[in-house]
Amino acid sequence: MDYVLLLGGIVVLLISGKLLVMGGVELASYLKISKLVIGMTVVAFGTSAPELLVSISAALKGSPEIALGNVLGSNIANIGLVLAITALIVPIDVQKDSIRFDWPIMMFSFILLAVFMFGNRITRIEGLVLVLLLVAYIWWEIRHSRQQMADNQDEIPEPKMSVWLALVLIIIASVGLAKGADWLVDGAVGIAKKLGISPRVISITIVAIGTSLPELTASVMAAIKKQLDISVGNIIGSNIFNIFSIVGFTALIKPMSFDHRPFIMDLSALIIIGLMLGGFMIFFGKRKIKRTEALIMLIFYVAYIVSLYYIKF
Question: Is the pTM of this model over 0.85?
């Protein structure tokens, strides 16, 4: 039954996340919001909604290890799995802004999360700090993007469905996200207890990869079709959004108390693969993630995942 809950939760989360993006984009079109703002707000929130709801549900149910493991695992998977597999298929160009702005902010978010976690508790004040940083980051990204697009007027997309249908999709998606998160957390905790595996390991592997499936599937399909709409900046932005929004909002709703020692390995892996990405972008790849570098990151990710089941804390 636990496996059914886990798989059912993942499926419901994936479908609900997609419906939320569809409904949100249509509603934003009726409100005359530009594609740029939609991408930075509605779509960004929609694609992070599964992780957010899982983390909040886990924290409320007294399993902060799953909440934090989900965030750490998703961020590591974004670089070592999603970006690496995509670059193995088609090498990815790196924009200058990713090196000058996005990557340093991402590394700052990694280190800030580590500092907060080493206190064995993430308080509401720390959650508020992360949420305020999220607001500042979104504001800066929108302002920066508008400056870049000053010569090209950002058109307002035309709605493709009625406003009522958009609202219905958002409501259905919200209910689905909440229920799917509950099922996934219950299933993950149950499986961890039966197998004698810590909830942290389950969340970093099965839960994190499960909630990252949309990004992985979309990226791989785009690479196969030679329609590469993924960029290093998108992956880095997603990682920043995950820490500032998911950990921030979760801690605001329910402060998390935990033992930081089991997470030292995960935080180390997160910072190492972040530095690895920076090194490949700046020193080795020369603004391009090549297949060799992608393979190294993928091997690191696989080794890290395998080690979770053999190294006990």
Answer: no
